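Inputs:
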Amino acid sequence: MLGLMTARDVKKVVLAYSGGLDTSVILRWLQKEYGCEVVTFTADLGQGEELEPARRKAEMFGVKEIFVEDLRETFVKDFVFPMFRANALYEGQYLLGTSIARPLIAQRQIEIAKMVGADAVAHGATGKGNDQVRFELGYYALQPDIKVIAPWREWDLTSRTKLLAFAEENQIPVTKDKRGEAPFSVDANLLHSSSEGKILEDPALAPDEIVFQRTISPENAPDIATEIAIDFHEGDPVALNGVTLSPAELLTRLNKLGHDNGIGRLDLVENRFVGMKSRGIYETPGGTILLTAHRSIESITLDREAMHLKDSLMPRYAEIIYNGFWFSPERHMLQALIDTSQKSVTGRVRLKLYKGNVICVGRESPNSLYDTRVVTFEDDEGAYNQVDAQGFIKLNALRLRLGGQIGRTGGTP
Amino acid sequence: MLGLMTARDVKKVVLAYSGGLDTSVILRWLQKEYGCEVVTFTADLGQGEELEPARRKAEMFGVKEIFVEDLRETFVKDFVFPMFRANALYEGQYLLGTSIARPLIAQRQIEIAKMVGADAVAHGATGKGNDQVRFELGYYALQPDIKVIAPWREWDLTSRTKLLAFAEENQIPVTKDKRGEAPFSVDANLLHSSSEGKILEDPALAPDEIVFQRTISPENAPDIATEIAIDFHEGDPVALNGVTLSPAELLTRLNKLGHDNGIGRLDLVENRFVGMKSRGIYETPGGTILLTAHRSIESITLDREAMHLKDSLMPRYAEIIYNGFWFSPERHMLQALIDTSQKSVTGRVRLKLYKGNVICVGRESPNSLYDTRVVTFEDDEGAYNQVDAQGFIKLNALRLRLGGQIGRTGGTP
Amino acid sequence: MLGLMTARDVKKVVLAYSGGLDTSVILRWLQKEYGCEVVTFTADLGQGEELEPARRKAEMFGVKEIFVEDLRETFVKDFVFPMFRANALYEGQYLLGTSIARPLIAQRQIEIAKMVGADAVAHGATGKGNDQVRFELGYYALQPDIKVIAPWREWDLTSRTKLLAFAEENQIPVTKDKRGEAPFSVDANLLHSSSEGKILEDPALAPDEIVFQRTISPENAPDIATEIAIDFHEGDPVALNGVTLSPAELLTRLNKLGHDNGIGRLDLVENRFVGMKSRGIYETPGGTILLTAHRSIESITLDREAMHLKDSLMPRYAEIIYNGFWFSPERHMLQALIDTSQKSVTGRVRLKLYKGNVICVGRESPNSLYDTRVVTFEDDEGAYNQVDAQGFIKLNALRLRLGGQIGRTGGTP
Amino acid sequence: MLGLMTARDVKKVVLAYSGGLDTSVILRWLQKEYGCEVVTFTADLGQGEELEPARRKAEMFGVKEIFVEDLRETFVKDFVFPMFRANALYEGQYLLGTSIARPLIAQRQIEIAKMVGADAVAHGATGKGNDQVRFELGYYALQPDIKVIAPWREWDLTSRTKLLAFAEENQIPVTKDKRGEAPFSVDANLLHSSSEGKILEDPALAPDEIVFQRTISPENAPDIATEIAIDFHEGDPVALNGVTLSPAELLTRLNKLGHDNGIGRLDLVENRFVGMKSRGIYETPGGTILLTAHRSIESITLDREAMHLKDSLMPRYAEIIYNGFWFSPERHMLQALIDTSQKSVTGRVRLKLYKGNVICVGRESPNSLYDTRVVTFEDDEGAYNQVDAQGFIKLNALRLRLGGQIGRTGGTP
């Protein structure tokens, strides 16, 4: 039965716990305010931080059930790659690096909640952003009667001062660099890092170079291009320079290549699901390479209408993921459509990486639909009959001519 | 009345005439085969060739009515800019440089045909490409009973040897460099140049540097970035670095900037309307800058759903133009939708151009919907109530929870 | 500045007031709870109730500013007809009769609020339905800082007993038939009536005949068909049986014709914007006739691609209106697209009305694109060249054949 | 290798043969003109004609390989039912009865061609219609190098007189009723019958009653309604009135029920793929019942966004089938999306059939998402929290309010 959620009536909660100051405060606050047992869940999604400190901190707070897990392979294989089959870009530009990580965290939190018999889950996302939506839609879709605690929407620790005071009162260690406020907020995983807030709030100003963490600047990248080859099998990348790699390994290597060549920076003002515009600085080095690579292999293996159908639905697919509806009927349906198109997307793409540029320099496939005999400017020995074009044009023009005849010239509706 | 076109029954034909070998052969062939008067029409769309030689050649062939016109401003103002309001990209990548020029040529040919009392028009596009479709759909939409002559689909000059023999027999001057075949075919206008065919036919091989005409390579571009500012008014660019410019002037300057910074190259395998894949090398220096600039000013001035609606229809709009349906009810209807969205797309974008990269470094607008008070990480003084997010999420999750309750967890359809 | 709305801090509120028990309780409750001045607004949208009793009741409650207005012509002309240009059906079936009335009421409330210097508006819609959303999105779009009071979401009169007790305590007259609860809830206007709730909640059971108010049953309709003619001008109906009528007059007559012939009943389980399914019984007699009539005149006057483009966007347009976003950029954009298509939708449609059926028996237009010479099975004298079909088919098949050649037969992706 | 089809160079051809005058003339003409062996293929798709006479006629013409097959079950199971999962309607009204039969005939012709070693196929569709496209796209998709003969586009038997003369010269029996021309042309199968041409060409005139073959008129239907129940399993109908039936049996029974109750007539002006408008009279008695039944069971079992996604793609899916692209990547992709949505579309629908009306009078499902506890007007015991609606509305309104604040009130873009 839905509803009837009396907030305070919680026995055991699974918290998505990073080990940082904010989620440590949340951990303690949950213990005090809800008087409930807290289970921590810390995942390695490739954010580039050690997880063991989080375990030790959790122990320090008396947490008995501590989950620390490396989810990088699952993340890339079951979330990132399926999404890349669609060439998904939110608002024409954003590779959805944060959006695609949230459903996996939500999924694992619910699985753990079932394992440990918890009746609630909690996350550290604020009340203004998209992440709260993504976490909670995931929770509810996977366990409809789960109780959800979103401390940032509930508590009165609404200023940095209050938060630090709470930390002090509750023996939460605050590292020196956290005493002052961070100049901007960061989220990172194996696909990307995102930076936003505070000094980045004015969209009229370019971000300072210190903001960037996953890429060097194009200016600082080598003067010599790097050439690589990526092999695809049924829509997913499987090898780099001829070496077969696991999904996470492959993305890790592409990230390094992207990093070194200044690839994958994006400075974007985007529209949040909760109704406001926000500005983010994204770095998606490997993902940016992957997008060009995937489009390139599709360009010779996908049928025209298969591609156009995919492309026409891509904005909706991207919006669904951005808004947090990964676990929804509409995403499953679109995924079925997209996956159906990928059976023949197999082959090799060669790319040149150079100071921010990803340039396709070759594509080959056993399934290539590109047929030199048909397209050639040379004599095609009858593979294509140019006379057919006349009939093709005449019938395509017929409706326009019928309109023109009664005064609707120039395609006037 | 449609139809009844007996091909040979032509009195006067308006030929789209470049002055080059191929259209000169066509000119002569029309005079001989159709025994009709030929009117030539040579337009400056910014292809970068002198037009006077075309006039002199036409005179040499005895042409009495010769039209040589500079259409650059019309081209940019009435065709390129409306298209850029849509951020149109065919198959996710191609800026439609050739596609957008054809309707204007067709339109002007029909206008001239009416002026001079011609009953036919002719073009020099081959029977395998998209351009024949674009020209002819334009002709038919603008004058449904016009007769259309497409020599490449009709004649028997099917090899280079035969073509040159015809030229020789008919006193058509052949410059030395035309004796041998060109290693690839080029189309150019103020928006772009495209190269395809022959040595470019293998998509596994990167194009040689000699192919590029409108851009230097990123490698050869300066080591220092160039920063520029573009002002938009209701969706169209109107000034560069604070200087108001006419549409063609503005695009010309952007082309120079793009050229110098190695911007706007594209190596693409695309799907033609006539059913085959083809490979093209495109250079769209100014247009590539413009696309980023326009998306950037839209990012702060367009409402979210206005943007998403536009974006979801863009692939269809691009396909319509690519396929040659500029003069069609569906294009007019989509244009009305797009133009309606652009009233507030006014403001300034600053961009950094660097070795192939176009990077937005600032956007400002009197119509900006980006509201720091709402989005801020700092205290927003009540501009946004975080508690609202809970109800928002709960109702968005309701259908997923109802599904989950009866076993359709995880958004199973 | 948005936000900062402290609910109780209201000086003057404009209430959408029907004069019935519920909104009378609301009126009194607002006076008591908010201690503010209440302005009433009662509109005739064709719901078929007298308005003067509402005025008298408002006077009785001490209301000083009372607005009673006949908005039927505006309703049909500026809301119903533009929507019908799109052939809008929500979820394939619902003609949006309730949805389209809410924006007009919201608009007029806001206009009145500006006139009388009110700082708030209030409505009587419940917290579970779509109407609260439609009213409030309209209010906020038209006046972003307006205060909105939705008593049903705020008060504690959560049962019929409490409501009646409040009425008694506050000298609100309760007619005898209102003492017991109504067996279902009704909303009506010139376009339709809707009935839902209580005895209608089980979708496995058909509604009783007493539910229907705007139509007799097909069984009770005459055994003889009625034939009518509707004239359209640029997409809108302008005359019935040759007599030019105002929009509201025309719809009123069509309602009578529909009523008498058992036309326009719909028993639907639909999906609400707030996330649940609900079941409604709708009667849209005139609108159902109009839909068939409009589609019929479009069938001969609209270009194919214009129609297909409209049709492909119709579900989105209908959803926008259903969800309450009439006053939104996306609706304005789609309306521009739709209206652009309607310039030539002019002509006469003849219909047969018979026991629930609306059957087109003829359509004629000066703008007809139907051309007997082209379509005829007889000799067309060259209007259409059948040989063109071969080239048309060959090029449409080309991509499928290229796929088949490499083993992707049968259109395998 | 494509192309190189020298028309006359045919050894053995599989003809889609009805046994009627026209295809008999074609049979003979192929033998004479092409001097090739003709294999006949006659299929029962439920058109309601005996097939044995076709066999005897073929024998009479010396045909050695004669295929006469009952394909009704395949037709309904693998073509009609998958299409009905989409609620497909072309141009909002047409149930695609002819369109969906063509791919099956094409498929079987190609299978037979492979079996008997034929190098060509032939059909009797004219050069103006859609059917030639549907047949030939099917042929080419299934066997890219097949030779296709379309006699109506090739021969000179362009008038009835010439055709009859040819018949006489070639000992083709002409029944008396075929001497004069049929007043209109008919196509029929288990899903529908279609009538068009000649006396039906004027869209201003209603068809005469004699045109109708599969339905009595609503006027002549019984005065008493018939009530039926249809059971669905994963999107397809499986039982009628509790009796499990095979696909073809079920459709046959629904056709009888539809026939008797005057259900499923449609008088339509539609847009052909070949560019012209045409007028058809369709009768789809069982299909019309099925559409309402399927939509009704979906109304309680499909998630909202699943339904809206399907609905938004339905026009494109219908267009694909209408245009003849059943065997195409895009149809396969859309089918995957649609089929994914149907897993839970299981349950029973009760319908009332009455004089042309199909009225849903009840729907039930073990997978119903309709939840009385949530939707009820009565106290829902906390299943739905009305306060959530406020946050939901506030955040949905936020972008409109931000726009309104800077003068873009009323949703002005």
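Chain A is about 40% helix and 20% strand. Flag for discussion at group meeting.
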